């Protein structure tokens, strides 16, 4: 059985991607649902991104197979996106918007 990823673990990956420390790659845009699958150096995230704004992280899995979902994080009162600073959130949204433009 895989271990649980905390919201802070996932937030740290997003934070490092926002700072440009880790590569951020959009794998798939699911325009009907507003979800975007991203890859951050061994981690797979499913982000809810609609109308140019990142709302929350639906799912995360690290390279060791540890994973968590929005339902798991909300049980503890938060999700990884809500832990980002305003600047970090803006950087991730910019990366998602730029990737969205390229794929459309």
Automatic annotation (TrEMBL):
It holds the Pfam family DUF7693. Residues 5-97 form the DUF7693 domain. InterPro entries: DUF7693. This is DUF7693 domain-containing protein.
């Amino acid at each position: 059985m895989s271990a649980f990823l905390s919201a802070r673990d996932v937030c740290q990956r997003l934070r490092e991607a926002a700072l440009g420390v880790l590569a951020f790659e959009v794998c798939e845009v699911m325009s009907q649902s507003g979800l975007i699958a991203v890859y951050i150096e061994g981690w797979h995230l499913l982000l809810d991104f609609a109308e140019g704004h990142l709302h929350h992280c639906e799912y995360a899995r690290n390279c060791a197979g540890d994973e968590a979902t929005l339902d798991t994080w909300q049980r503890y009162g938060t999700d990884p996106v809500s832990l980002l600073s305003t600047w970090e959130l803006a950087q991730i949204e910019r990366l998602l918007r730029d990737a969205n433009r390229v794929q459309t």
